[in-house]
Amino acid sequence: MFEKRPVIALDFHCKEEVEKFLAQFDSNEQLYIKIGMELFYQEGPSIVTYLKELGHSVFLDLKLHDIPNTVKSAMIGLAKMGVDMVNVHAAGGFEMMKQAIEGLEEGTPEGAKRPILIAVTQLTSTSEEDMHRDQLIQVPIENSVVHYARRAREAGLDGVVCSALEVAMIKRATDKNFICLTPGIRPKGAEVGDQKRVKTPSEARRIGSDYIVVGRPITLAEKPVDAYHEILKDWNYGN
Ligand SMILES: O=C(O)c1cc(=O)[nH]c(=O)n1[C@@H]1O[C@H](COP(=O)(O)O)[C@@H](O)[C@H]1O
User: What was the ipTM of the complex prediction?
Assistant: First the structure.
């Protein structure tokens, strides 16, 4: 399920910063925007309505991780907001993921499309050593990621969040239509920051990522619109 547009992570504090950022783009350019907890906890559901009314697609990245009943109830509410994609942590377990899907199905208004649901496997800021030390999971990180992907698929989810490094393995272990959304994307030579498992947009494309998520290389660029278009071009192999 290839998405031509890189998903822009708008990790801003408030709506004013979002407005300032979007004002630099041509108003006809429909973007795929990721709202994370930083922005959502400040602005609430109205930030989703605002972006949807402008015609943008919205991935609401709240990474739910709680008991199954709580996650189901939360998902009913998120589905009503009309977002295009939401996520949970696969570490919350099989039953939690199953209930998350059920909540989304229940909350999706009639005639509307159920939001895509994906599960975070191992965060792209987690290295194999971090995982061994912090989570006491003593297997190679790829095994943990593929295991979570299999469980997410069995629970009925649409895909996973992973690093581009693991996409080929996940597709082999699940199926080629199982979505792999990959953050940890950096243009050649860009600052990596806190990301540990990174690839460039064209590398991610070659490996088979369906969506890429890019934040700071665009939002902190001197010319964000140019930075976005360069990443868009690299992701689409120069087309
Ligand atoms: O779920 C996510 O979107 C996510 C998962 C993950 O494993 N790693 C990861 O970086 N993200 C998000 O992707 C974005 C990456 O931003 P940059 O590192 O600035 O490109 C951030 O908003 C993260 O919250």
Answer: 0.97
